[in-house]
Amino acid sequence: MPAATETSDRHGHTHGLVDDEIKRSRQGVRAVLLSLGVLGLTAALQTAIFVLSGSVALLADLIHNFGDALTAVPLGAAFLLRSNRAEELAGLAVVLAIFVSACVAGAEAIDRLLHPNAPDHLAVLAVAGAIGYLGNFMAARVRTTAGRRLNSAALVADGDHARADAYVSLAVILSAATVALGATVADPLIGLGITLVILRITWQSWRTVRGHGRGR
């Protein structure tokens, strides 16, 4: 039986290749939308808890999760366009979003160090960290699996990003525990620590995206 990429009609159109591109596009969009839903819900729940707690560590985490969710926009557009170049540009947009979220989180942590204000509702704060961990872990599985299957460096970079974020979210639980023990300064310090981790993720994602682009 001939390969799908070699089939053609009487007009000379090769349908197999187009079908493969459409299939890849649909699978990519599906993965992007699924991860968007997971991270959007995660960030929304964390926002509600931040209003109660006022934790800078949680703020850093939820800002990053919102930014991570929004990277679905350029990634989804790239898959819809079925363009390798658009995918590379989407990957760069992902890296930029990660970097901006790090800057915002770092600025907020520094401000809280200068103007101390201990977070409240510590038990709920710990729950927010657990929500962040689960949401990011699920999004990472979706993105990384789809990225490897579709050979998409942008999706793989975003999946690695979300996986690292899952462990960053655990720092929110640590913040709740240390503040409960009386170390209120730990919250903004952990926020700064999260910022440094995000910056490291930025560099790793940049190398993944640029390295894949040069290898085409």
Structural class by secondary-structure content:
mainly alpha
Low-confidence stretches: 1-18
The tally of strands reads: 0
Domains, number = 1
Q: Sketch the major β-sheet.
A: none
Write the layout of secondary structure elements.
Layout lengths: L14 H39 L2 H15 L1 H10 L2 H31 L7 H29 L2 H28 L5 H29 L2
What attributes characterize this protein structure?
disordered N terminus; 216 residues; 84% helix; mainly alpha; Alpha-lytic protease prodomain-like
Structure description:
There is one protein chain. This protein is mainly alpha-helical. It has a single domain (15-212), classed as Alpha-lytic protease prodomain-like (Up-down Bundle). It contains 7 helices and no strands. It has helices at residues 15-53, 56-70, 72-81, 84-114, 122-150, 153-180, 186-214. The radius of gyration is 20 Å and the shape is elongated. Residues 1-18 have low confidence and may be disordered.
